[in-house]
Amino acid sequence: xxxxxxxxxxxxxxxxxxxxxxxxxxxxxxxxxxxxxxxxxxxxxxxxxxxxxxxxxxxxxxxxxxxxxxxxxxxxxxxxxxxxxxxxxxxxxxxxxxxxxxxxxxxxxxxxxxxxxxxxxxxxxxxxxxxxxxxxxxxxxxxxxxxxxxxxxxxxxxxxxxxxxxxxxxxxxxxxxxxxxxxxxxxxxxxxxxxxxxxxxxxxxxxxxxxxxxxxxxxxxxxxxxxxxxxxxxxxxxxxxxxxxxxxxxxxxxxxxxxxxxxxxxxxxxxxxxxxxxxxxxxxxxxxxxxxxxxxxxxxxxxxxxxxxxxx
Length: 312
Ligand SMILES: Nc1ncnc2c1ncn2[C@@H]1O[C@H](COP(=O)(O)OP(=O)(O)OP(=O)(O)O)[C@@H](O)[C@H]1O
Ligand SMILES: [Mg+2]
Hints:
single chain; Rossmann fold; Alpha-Beta Plaits
C-alpha cells in the first residue's frame, strides 16, 4: 500500500506563521494586552480561548495590523503585519462586519478576488467554502450560517496561507457551526495555518491541535486539550470536616492540596479513586463529593486566576 500524506497536493510550510513577543496594548488604564507572547508555526490550527474581555479581539486586530500596539513585536509570516496582509498572505474574519447587500455571492467573491494580485480561483473558493450551489444567490437572502461561509470565502479570496478568525462560530446553530468547521478544516488540510478565537471550549478541543488560553491580556496556558486537562486536571474530593485533622491529610495518596472551607474539607487530588479509598480506610467520610476533571473545569480554573500554571 502506498503511503498517503495528510497535506496531499500542498507543500508542507515551515517556519513561523505568527509571532508576538511581549506585546502590550492599553486603552486608558485598561491593560487589554499585557505582555503577550505567542509563536505559531506554519500549518498549525490554534484556538485562542478566553473569557469576555480577555484581550482576544485586541490581539487579533493588532496582529492583522488594524490596531497599533503600544509595545513589543509582531510578525506575520516573517513580515510586518500590514505587508503580509497587503500581499494577500493573510485572510481574516473579524468579530463584527457585515456583507454588502443586493449582490450575489459570486459577485461579492469576485470583487474581493479583484483586490489581490494572485487570488484563489473562484471555483476553488466556492468549493472550499461549500458555496458552489449558492453562487448566484443574493447575499441578503442567505441564512446566518451561509452568510458566515461567505465571509469565510472572502477571507480565502487572496489565497492566503494564514487565516485569522475572531469568534467565527458565535451565534451559529450547531449544524451551521459544523458546516463552517468542515470548510475551515478543508483549508487547513492544505497545509495552511488557522488561528481562531472562541468561547467554546469543546470547539477548541475538537478542532484545534493546540489551545492557547488567554486571560487579562496574557497567555496563561498553552497546549493540546489533553495537556490542558492534565495541567489543571485533578479532581476535588470534599467531605464534612468532622474529626478529620486537615494537617494530616496532605499525606493521603493522590492528594496535592488541602483546603478547609467552613465545615468542609476540600482535597485536590490527581487520583480521586486512590484518595477516596485511602480515606475510607482511615476514618468515617460524610457527604463525599468528587468534582472536576472536565475541560470546562480546567478552563474555569485557569481563567479565574486561582491557577496560573502553564501546561505546555
Ligand atoms: N476601543 C476600546 N476602548 C476601551 N477599552 C477597550 C476597547 N476595546 C477593548 N477594550 C477593553 O479591552 C479589554 C479586552 O477587550 P477585547 O475586546 O480584546 O476582549 P475579547 O477577549 O475579544 O472579549 P470578547 O470575548 O467579549 O470578544 C476589555 O477590558 C475591553 O473592555
Ligand atoms: Mg472579542
